[in-house]
């Protein structure tokens, strides 16, 4: 086991001001004096009574150049020679691209040795170890695969990216061989049929065995030779088409063209609607028309700002109409998926995918979406009336009907009117203060906190990356490591906010040792002793793209909107799921759970930011040091709620579209069948208000070709809404919000009620990872919450038989969750 002494950052306000004074002297013409600069950063001085760890967290993220670093330069850090070899992500195997490739080859050798043990398992004792062996193989390979995926996304070093691509490719090929290894499958099924063996398994190990069996069968392993070969060909076709789709999909965001009248072009010039558009206009001699070429981003701006409805209509059609190539590739993917599902005996791809999810069937998803839409429809009907009233004051020709090309323009009108009363919240929130506040919340709920630690030179991929240790405040035990890559930079991949698992927690002291390699070939990785067990420490990477700013050589904290604060809480919620979901098995550790359950922990964390009194505690004005008032945050949240219903409507629509595109309709093989599905859904009353659709379909457009979630979610896009409904109910059940319950995070006894609820949530949801039926986890938590509150519960769960139905899952459970609606 490897023990590491924490290497803490050295920060204090004197050092920070000294650092900035040095910067001032080196910047010619910088207009601010040292005293003014000192006053401007009053918010970042150590505050009276502030915990040293909280202060260190704030300084680590808000003033990265003032903390102690190793003086690395971005771009060559992967190849820098250092006295101490830590390796990327703290893994000594990942010291260089060449070493990373060697580690991948070693992992295959280890897997082959473990496969041989499975194939030689004849006695009951050996058969009882098959699940453990499979889980060890899975972890051994995923440590390489997951790391390669992260490197492909985060690195700016071409050599590393290229090597990660190569490693990912040959590891994927090897894993596909294992997924179709009939011998392993036969051994596993044989062990599962033996009651004497299964009787030795605990609840989690049985769940792991079941998931391995289902994964094998999803790979068509139970098929005869001809069907299996067809399955492999279809799967290869889908992978190749998916890469092609992502290639052609980029064209969706390239240049678009629309034919405008000369008068319309002149109108845009007078409104100063963008030089790029004016410069790229090509006059067609004699026809009185102008061919306008514009980038996608400028087209979106025109939809929001152009006062001419004809221009907006032409731009909308140009953005979403000329995409036949992308539509053709997408439809081929959907058709191949449908064929693959039928090969393995399922009616549709959605039926195949949903089998092991909470929803179980497409019908159950439809029930949830229909029930939820009935709950939410009054909200967007009210907003529709506001838009129709606003439309009366415009030059829009048909004032009785809302059109998609007018949507952003009308919403912008209402936004501008409402947001005039909202304070400028970006002056109050920073990354460091947000992370310190989240750490305080974790200490209140669970008794754990974040501690900033300086990374070794070859441990991270850029100087702006910060390392956090998650520790138990009572025992001091390390729970896990989080690498935070949060600040936008020019060459950084734009993948949005994301949570990456580099390494899961699992039990390792009972691993099978492969001679010459150690247990996993990764000697030196962090482990912790947990009672009689030893576990490997989970390692997580969080990725965001918050825009920092530099003035006169002085690095300032990236200003965050309240949306950004919610985003950071969301991603940290995923990370804490990984920290707490420390099962004995990699395959069900942390966020390795059904996709329609995995967003629950992250979405629930967003709700804390929406408590004005709590959000106020995270804020300080960067000049005055004063917090934003809770009433100012309430005003912002009230305005945002007025428009949230249309987002819900859109999410419902996209969820239904995802489900329908993966239904048996995908066997059409007639071009543009997917557009017909899109058109029919626009006429569905569940997405309209009163007796008509909110926004009718625009003929000949294919908005869905930009819906890239179709690739990754494939019938599961409903998961966002599903987990939002669950999270809202759980939050209001567990964390009632009033002046008597919101803790001040300084030892206030009011924290006790949230701590009790936090432990209930951790015990019933987080600690299980994917090792227990989510319906059972949810029901147990609600029952525990009712008992903790002396039998009281929110009205949405006030009938005991509802919990019985919920625990069984199925259509009744999906209807119950839909009936909860979304929090206002």
UniProtKB/TrEMBL annotation:
It catalyses: Release of an N-terminal octapeptide as second stage of processing of some proteins imported into the mitochondrion. It comes from Zancudomyces culisetae (Gut fungus). Its cofactor is Zn(2+). Residues 302-782 form the Peptidase M3A/M3B catalytic domain. InterPro entries: M3A_MIP, MetalloPept_cat_dom_sf, Neurolysin/TOP_dom2, Pept_M3A_M3B, Pept_M3A_M3B_dom. PANTHER family: MITOCHONDRIAL INTERMEDIATE PEPTIDASE (PTHR11804:SF79), PROTEASE M3 THIMET OLIGOPEPTIDASE-RELATED (PTHR11804). Binds 1 zinc ion. It is an enzyme of class 3 (hydrolase). Belongs to the peptidase M3 family. Its EC number is 3.4.24.59. Keywords: Hydrolase, Metal-binding, Metalloprotease, Mitochondrion, Protease, Transit peptide, Zinc. Gene3D superfamilies: Collagenase (Catalytic Domain) (3.40.390.10), Neurolysin, domain 3 (1.10.1370.10). One of its GO terms (biological process) is peptide metabolic process. GO terms for molecular function: metal ion binding; metalloendopeptidase activity. Its main location: mitochondrion. It is found in: Mitochondrion matrix. This is mitochondrial intermediate peptidase. GO terms for cellular component: mitochondrial matrix.
